UniProtKB/TrEMBL annotation:
Cellular component terms (Gene Ontology): membrane
Species whose genome carries this gene: Thlaspi arvense (Field penny-cress)
Bilayer disposition of the protein: Multi-pass membrane protein
Main localisation: membrane
Family, per entry: Belongs to the MIP/aquaporin (TC 1.A.8) family.
Record key words, sorted: Membrane, Transmembrane, Transmembrane helix, Transport
Protein name: Uncharacterized protein
Domain of life of the organism encoding this protein: Eukaryota
Location(s) in or outside the cell: Membrane
Gene Ontology molecular function: channel activity
Transmembrane segments: 41-61, 68-89, 119-138, 158-176
PANTHER family, sorted: AQUAPORIN NIP1-1-RELATED, AQUAPORIN NIP2-1
Length: 188
């Protein structure tokens, strides 16, 4: 394997470009950029922060504005925030933004277990900072920011969250881990 290292500007950011065996000319298009682990963690913090901030802000604004955003509007806000963050930092960290996603990828052997605790800490930090920012921006009683807990029991909340998380992980696992979805070099 050939390895090329260099510094980017005066910032000292090191980027390693690893290419396949120099004697193997079958696939010269496979060039991988290894991003330092700290940058991955920063990407997870920022991605989770903006995702939670945008999604939860839509919920809070909906409560403040007398249901002007509506539930479809809230769902669209979450979906668009996720799409923007995946496109923005997905190439750096993998765009997990959720401990359930990180654990699922590690369980499927698509992510190293040794990086799981750091990713989860980064995600919890990002979501906590986003929630704190919303708490500082919007006024309201302490229970005003209770989230989306239903009026039912704790068991109903648990079952609802379990099903929704299963659905989320089913879609993510199907899309992100399917080898048939990997783009190949187009034939001319």
């Amino acid at each position: 394997m050939a390895e090329i290292s260099g510094a980017s500007g005066n910032h000292g950011v090191v980027m390693n470009i690893i290419k396949g065996d120099p004697n193997d000319h079958k696939d010269d298009s496979s060039c991988f950029v290894s991003v330092p682990f700290v940058q991955k963690l920063i990407a997870e913090v920022l991605g989770t922060y903006f995702l939670v901030f945008a999604g939860c802000a839509a919920v809070v604004v909906n409560k403040d504005s007398g249901k002007m955003v509506t539930f479809p509007g809230i769902a669209i806000a979450w979906g668009l925030a996720m799409m923007v963050m995946v496109y923005s930092v997905g190439h750096i960290s993998g765009a997990h933004f959720n401990p359930a996603v990180t654990i699922a990828f590690a369980t499927c052997k698509r992510f190293p277990w040794k990086q799981v605790p750091a990713y989860i800490i980064a995600q919890v930090l990002g979501s906590t900072l986003a929630s704190g920012t919303l708490r500082l921006i919007f006024n309201g009683d302490q229970d005003y920011f209770a989230g989306t807990s239903p009026a039912g029991s704790d068991m109903q909340s648990f079952v609802l969250e379990f099903i929704i998380t299963f659905y989320l992980m089913f879609v993510i696992s199907g899309v992100a881990t399917d080898n048939r979805a990997v783009c190949s070099k187009p034939s001319i």
